[in-house]
């Protein structure tokens, strides 16, 4: 997604997840401590968003406050939290706190 010429919000936009299903529940995600991530280092896994959700003040009321990302084959994919990430970009922030599941560290250990 480009904004005003050459400034990227995200590294890339794709439709779907290129990594295997990790099977994490909301409780599992909550065990991963959030860390700061630059928006322009993540690839989204959703191409579309709902404008009403983007503008809603209580959009995270029932969910995790932090977006979820998956590291797979050296790339970082934003799995959940596209609306929160875009809201941050609209507020001129290029870094957000994200829970990151490192599948690069987990999958080789499982397969090996």
Throw out a few tags for this protein:
112 residues, alpha/beta, Conserved hypothetical protein from pyrococcus furiosus pfu- 392566-001, ParB domain, two-stranded antiparallel ribbon
Task: Provide a descriptive summary of the structure in words.
This protein is an alpha/beta fold and 112 residues long. It contains 4 helices and 8 strands. It has helices at residues 26-30, 51-55, 82-90, 103-111, and strands at 2-3, 7-8, 12-13, 34-38, 42-44, 68-72, 75-80, 95-102. A 6-stranded mixed beta sheet has the order 3-5-7-6-8-4. It has a two-stranded antiparallel ribbon with strand order 1-2. The longest helix is centred in the C-terminal third of the chain and has 9 residues, at 82-90. The protein is globular and about 40 Å long. The relative contact order is 0.24. The model is unreliable at 1-6 (pLDDT under 50). Pfam families: VapB. This is Transcription regulator of the Arc/MetJ class.
Describe this structure in a few short sentences.
The protein has one domain (2-16, 25-111): Conserved hypothetical protein from pyrococcus furiosus pfu- 392566-001, ParB domain (Alpha-Beta Complex), CATH 3.90.1530. The chain has helices at residues 26-30, 51-55, 82-90, 103-111, and strands at residues 2-3, 7-8, 12-13, 34-38, 42-44, 68-72, 75-80, 95-102. By secondary structure, the protein is of the alpha/beta class.
Describe the secondary-structure layout:
Elements: E1 2-3, E2 7-8, E3 12-13, H1 26-30, E4 34-38, E5 42-44, H2 51-55, E6 68-72, E7 75-80, H3 82-90, E8 95-102, H4 103-111
Parallel strand pairs: 3-5, 5-7, 6-8
Antiparallel strand pairs: 1-2, 4-8, 6-7
């Amino acid at each position: 997604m480009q904004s005003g010429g050459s400034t990227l919000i995200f590294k890339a936009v794709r439709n779907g997840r290129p990594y295997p299903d990790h099977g994490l529940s909301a409780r599992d995600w909550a065990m991963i401590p959030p860390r700061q991530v630059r928006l322009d280092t993540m690839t989204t896994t959703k191409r579309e968003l709902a404008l009403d959700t983007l503008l809603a003040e209580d959009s995270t009321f029932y969910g995790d406050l932090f977006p979820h990302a998956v590291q797979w084959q050296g790339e970082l994919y934003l799995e959940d939290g596209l609306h929160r990430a875009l809201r941050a970009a609209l507020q001129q922030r290029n870094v957000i706190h994200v829970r990151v599941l490192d599948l690069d560290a987990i999958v080789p250990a499982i397969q090996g």
